[in-house]
Amino acid sequence: MSTDTTTRPSAGPFATESTGARVLRFAIRRGPLILFAAVCVYLALASPFFLTQANILSSLEQTAPIAVVAFGLAIVVIGGGDDVVSGGIDLSLPASAALATVILSDQLTNRGAGLPQAFLLALLAALVVGLVNAVLVTVVGLSAILATLATYVAVVGVTRVVSENRRIDVTDPAILYIRDEELLGLPVAVWIMLLVFAVVAFLVHRTRYGMNLQATGGNLDAARSAGIRTTRIVASTFVLASVAAAVAGVLLVARGSGSSPGIDERLLVDMMLATFIGAAFSPRNVVNVLGAMLGATFVALLSNGLVLTRVNNSWIDGWKGVLILIVVAAAALQHRERK
Amino acid sequence: MTVDEAPPGTPVLEMAGISKTFPGVKALDDAGLTVRPGEVHGLVGENGAGKSTIIKVLAGIYAPDSGTMRVDGEELAHVTPAAVRSRGIRFVHQELQLVPTFSVTESVFMGAELVGPLGVRRREMRTRAERILEEVLGTAIDGRRLIRDLGPAERKLVQIARALVQEGPRLVVFDEPTAPLAAAEGERVLSAIRRLRDQGIASLYVSHYLGEITEICDRATVFRNGTDVSVVDPIVESSGRELIRRMIGRDVDQLFPERKNRADRRDEGDGENGQDRDARGDGIALSARGLGDGATFADVSIDVARGEIVGLTGLLGSGTAEVVDTVVGLRRHRTGSIRIAGRDSGIASPADALEAGLVLIPRDRRHDGLVLEQSVETNLNLSTLGRASRLGLLSSKLLASRSDGLIQKLDIRPADRTATTRLLSGGNQQKVVLGRALAADAGILVLDDPTVGVDIGAKQEIYRLVAGLADEGAAVLIASNDPLEVLGLCDRIVVMVRGRVVLDVPASDLTQEELISHMTGSAAGDPTADARTAAPASAPASADTAIADRADGSAS
Amino acid sequence: MTTTDTRPGLVGALRSSGSWIARYAFLAAFAALFVFFSVQATSFLSGSNLLNALQGSMILLLIALALTLVISSGGIDLSAGTALDFGAWFAIAAMATYGLPWPLAVLCALAGGALVGSVNAFLIVTLGVTPFLATLGTFFIGRSLQQIGTGGGANINYRDAPEGFRALTSGSTLFIPNEVLLVGIVLVVFYLYLQRSKHGVRIEAMGLQDSAARTAGLRTRRYRAGIYIAAGVTCAVAGILLSSGLRIYTPMAGFSYLLDGIAAVFIGASMHPRARPNVLGTLAGVLFLSMLNNGLDLLGLDFNAKAALRGLVLLVALTLAFLIAKQARRTTAVRAAAIG
What we know:
The structure holds three protein chains of three kinds. Chain B is an alpha/beta fold. Chain B has a six-stranded mixed β-sheet with strand order 6-9-10-3-11-12, sandwiched between helices. In chain B, strands 18-21-22-15-23-24 form a six-stranded mixed β-sheet, with helices on both faces. In chain B, strands 2-1-4-5 form a four-stranded antiparallel β-sheet, with helices on one face. The two termini of chain B are 23 Å apart. Chain C has one domain (17-35, 42-330): Orthogonal Bundle (ABC transporter involved in vitamin B12 uptake, BtuC), CATH 1.10.3470. In chain C, 76% of the residues lie in helices and 2% in strands.
């Protein structure tokens, strides 16, 4: 509160902002975007293959599961507020998705079930996790981070029991269809992603529930005083997000032709990155559904491009870590500037 | 209790015999309030008089212990927020209850969205929101703009539009609607309220700005000590003085302590100006010279001598709060200097200030003053934990003896050093903050609005303590926008208007009317005159007769 | 203040039995579990097993102490495991790769922890990033650095570590294992600092209400920066002990301690009358979790099943800890209101 006066170049309430200050503000607000654009340009120059249609389509296919969990996280963050500590967050989503992949693979390969039955079971498991999160946050009063970090570990443990920590291959035709086929020039997995996007975007931006959700996350007191049942809204976000996790499970099984241990960790990084960078895409600079999809696409393109330019695989996570930090530091600076 | 005679037509709101007790405080005692259809009704009273409590009872937030409430003649059995809302009573809260990232349309319809088969009907909502803003409130705001891009007055208008968007508004309750607004902007809100009256919608207008009350209200109810003491009907230009008399209703002199050396000080101090004092120099504990932060205030010079109480006063937004923050290192100054005992202070943080022997008693004690979840003992010792330590470890014996001493000296109740500070009343919490400052043995005390939300009894004790400290040789700087407080307590008064010092004189040279006219920038004019129109958009919040404190903390 | 509240049966029961039962619920659970393991696994009660369990809990205790410090100041450190990794990595690499004598290697390890802590301090204090995101970012970067530094995550073996380095965990002084002695000293230092000195009170004030602490004249920025660096160094000590015991550095081994550490802090907080993180409570939490680990091992459960069970027990423990803490807070509130 006190330091901002020293950084402001112009004095007096009537002075208009100097051009330099405006550029600086723009850079802070759009920093992550500028950075991403720069990285993409670099990748396109460094690898001629980067901008080919085949590469973009395959990147999109890689994006699908990340985008779908990111939609789930976006719902939680929109409803809980984007303050990561006191606001909404669901770290257990990748674990739920991983549990779903294991249940799906186990059902399809070892128990001879069909996709509908397997999916129902996976959905059920994810819903249980979502409900546990909802109870922990709204009834017990744990902060969302802590509650979902705990369920994350518990679910990872359960996943290991179910899978015996082994890879399960899947050759179910429905899964192979999602993996290999294209409709109207787009992979089926991408269609599924777009479908989920349409449903979630409608829910969040076009329904009364969605408006109440945004109000709850934007200003809890204001929402409560406007007669919105905020506790119910917050609880519902965790349940909805777990549905997204189950759908992402299907896409993950298709992408990997089965389930493999440890899939949750990378998904966690990518999901967080996609969702929070997504905020930089919105004119209001808040976490939102379209932003989550664009963010996921960017993350996939980035990983893909780094691989194409023969960057050591080990560096990729580091790059993502740096990006997360730039995004949040930009957000923090912006927050300070607004005060 | 003056419940007035049969009004013409059924009152839109009639509250009678309302009592509400909180642990240790009787916030409302057989209070009543009547609003006629289509009128603008003022609600005035000091902090702790029960204004905000009765508003909360009306809103269904507090359940009263007894009393009845009728809307349009019908008694409400259960006063819940939903029931009140469905009867057409709407609230425009003091805090801006808006989501910064929402558009105007979304904010107006928050919690009452229009939904069709294809989802939320954005276009229709936008049309209706813009129409309400335009036709009812007389302002054109694009429904797509975001709240965070609006000015404070526009935000307030959006809040008002929200109160009107649902069917059948009968009464809109305004809680200090102009408090955060600059002068010209406040006028927009006032004219919106006039438009509501023209359309037959009644308003209940809660404000400390008596100038506004006399300007737009038809009648006003005065609250004192938890009850309605009188109704002023009708309100005319000159009702301001009448309102003040009924609000205070007590002997003001008793509230303030006798100052031991005030008389002597007057003898030597009368007629002195800043230069003379500067030349004298030696007794000056705190001296600010040509202070400015490049934005909210400029060229501010203040001297505080040992044993002297200096009042820094002005309307909300005049820059007094910023000057205080700068003096204690919470804010940086771009020009000028701050000297402590004749040396450049180099204060960049409250910690530096503490080391230089200067402590702050902040205005928002619940947020900045106290760690509410810690014990009274911890809070009393928080600035001086080193002195309660032996060999680097805290001594519980020292902690206890130090805090017990302070609790006794300040008469903090309950006299339990282990009590959680959050559970104390506002006055006792403020005494804990004072106690912490006392514990630090600081030679200079800076108090920022020390009696906001403090009841009369505690107020009196706080004044006594501050005066006692000054008598013992402390230099005291008090920022306050309560003219009575400054006049009653201070030796010298420095008045700020729009970020500049306009007056620096001994308190005895001023009458209340003179002080108020200096604060409002209409010196020598009628104290209740409206100075709003003259003030530019950037400057002080409001220029009407400001009386009592700005924020209503009362019994909550 | 708390008007409506859906009160689960358990908490309702606790409420009526008085707050001390709530406070000691974990001690009761501790005792019950102790009896259960003693009956189910015969070797549980043997002196050597208990000593083993105690020694095995030392690393977790260090992590939990670091987290107690950070959480007490209102923050969180998700990079605690990373600091541990850096400690272990720098210690082993200094000796195995660069051939430094072991005392210098220990210094390198501590510097590694301080590095992680300094990055956190920079992000949190200077840039104003929330601790959660800042330490998450540090965690990701630290993980990547380890992968890069080890050519994709390969272990670094150093079987023939110098005797002095190995003695940190294998030797004993006056019949007390060196490891326990060392961590015991750290524990006492933390206890004196956080629970008995002015610093602990100040840090708690910062954690509860930063602006009030600042106005009261506390140098909160300085404290906060110091806290994250101290936490990094403490975790690096844990890394040194880990590498001394195993004589091997496994990249990213530290993460597994993080949640246990957080859980231990919150279990400990639930035993505090005002539900604040505290050193002795953290110790009790660590011992509880270690006993759970040890007992589950002795029961001969499958590795994966153990992981799941531990996760679930942790979840239940955290939930209980929170419900109890909430209850305790309410009871003190009621009592104090009665006084007032």
